[in-house]
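Quick illustration, no need to memorize.
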Amino acid sequence: TTLPLSERADLRPVTPYAASKVAAEYLTIQVGLSSDLECVRVRAFNHIGPGQSTNFVAPALASRIVGNEQSGRTQVLVGDMSPRRDFTDVRDVARAYRHVMCQGQNGSVYNVCSGLDFSIQQLADRLAEFATHKMDFVSDESLLRPVDLPALVGDNHALMTETGWRATFSFDETLEDVMKDMRARLSDSSAQ
């Protein structure tokens, strides 16, 4: 597959979750064709930001790092650090959805993405730079995924040119906010 992925790229889901997204997209196309309802579609790449569940990689790593800050430990358990992903701050994603709803063309599809890719290693290293002491990443087989694409990055040209959307948060600003949020969450939970 050629990267970055444009909206014209073939849909090739490799997980049940991805297949469900493709099915939802086709359902949206059908609704648009069989009714007077205006429909636009988005293909959202990885969201990241404060408040996100620890089921996702950035807050999971942030939680382990902040836990280590509180306990004095240094070892952070990690899975595969090589995949590259296109991360967009959730606050920018929410704005992108509004732009698509207000300025998007009926029947069109838009990639909601930053257009930049970072490895999980880069993400972890940057989170660790915000830590209060040095962290060491230790591989844990239980954190490996059975299926994982080596790289996934999107082309956001249509989103930007047709709706005027632009990202406002840098990757580092987002990660700093993720760490601040995690410190507040873990501080609140330890106070109870």
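Strands lie at 41-44, 46-48, 75-78, 84-85, 87-89, 109-112, 118-119, 136-139, 151-152.
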